[in-house]
Amino acid sequence: MSTKTVFFAILLSIATTAANHDYKDALSKSIIFYEGQRSGKLPPHQSITWRSDSGLSDGSSDNVDLTGGYYDAGDNVKFGFPMAFTTTMMAWSVLEFGRRMADEQLEAAREAVRWGSDYLLKASAHLPNALYVQVGDPTVDHKCWERAEDMTTARPVYKVTPSNPGSDVAAETAASLAAASRVFRHVDPGYSSKLIEAAEKVFAFADAYRGSYSDSLSSVVCPFYCSYSGYHDELLWGAAWLFKATHNASYLDYAKSLGLDDDSDVFSWDNKLPGARVLLSRDSHIDDEGELSTFKEHAQRFMCNVLRGSPSQSVSYTPGGLMYKMDGSNLQYVTSSTFLMTTYAKYLKAAEETFNCGDFVVSPSLLREQAKKQVDYILGDNPKEMSYMVGYGDRYPRRIHHRDSSIPVYSTDGTSSSSYGCDGGFQFFYSDVRVTFVIAYNK
Length: 443
Prior knowledge:
Structural class: mainly alpha
Radius of gyration: 21 Å
Distance between the termini: 23 Å
Strand content: under 5%
Number of strands: 7
Strand order of the largest sheet: 1-2-3
Number of helices: 18
């Protein structure tokens, strides 16, 4: 899900520039992607109609309610760590750029945030004894290819506790709940208060019982979503969002006390340092807060590391112009870095500032220009002349990354009373046969 996590915000942020593409159409398709990944009881207005209710007994093995939330791309597993990051970033997207959205798009984006935060409230409801961080065994799940509605595999649940801590996943969950609380502050104050109360509780748990969830749950979270960067970046990220949500200076003091000085050229579900620094730099630009200058300096060093043409550029670019950081799902790093470019450009413009990478001058327009090139590449301005967004453009992938998009409903009357089983779905995974599904985009 990470590639789509921030893409609609990037589309919003460049919407006022000269348009190479129909960004409004791409925005609608970007938001609707999340409906395809929903778990739980689906609402009556669900647009993607080849999905239906699933995972309705999730959590029952531990006598808790863990229904809802999002599946992770092609898996039927609910990984709490990247799901929380996804929800955090959707919330940040709405906060920064939601005013540019049409009413129906903004409502759909808020609904996507709420779907994730509702689940995270359930996952954190049993603190301080346990934070539930995963549903499903990925090793077992990867041996099957079956619709989420027809799952035949067991649905074990996994949690972090005081004796088996997970500061990284807990602090990310706190960040997510805090960011979401700001999204709903004015439209649903009661829900917002509930979210911030839970966020503070989860963050206290993350700080009090320190350790990486990769150590506590290594057999089920690694190598899928190991916390390779450790947990201090999530503690900074969580504190930053709690400071933004509560205006409680103790969270800012906490963030500064961590003393994190590492540079980074990647922002992702694993490494939150650049995101936290950009977030905390905002007040330094707008209110000239000297105590936040360190975060501002770090944010600018990140930009210098990723900008093409900067003397300190440390990421590569393909011959076609795409930012290239890592093998495997490279677009997630492209979109997350580009989101930070557009957001930081907004802060710079508000403060009427520029900065330098050596003798390379960086202006808000330069950041937006480079971000736009990445977006346009994804939407089809690339050597293959192919959009990487399902449904956008003339040539594009035909299915979203979800099992249901490749496996038809087993029963002919649509009741799905039977299924292909754990192995039967692979015939569609490997087949050239094209199964047609009607996807109702909001046109």
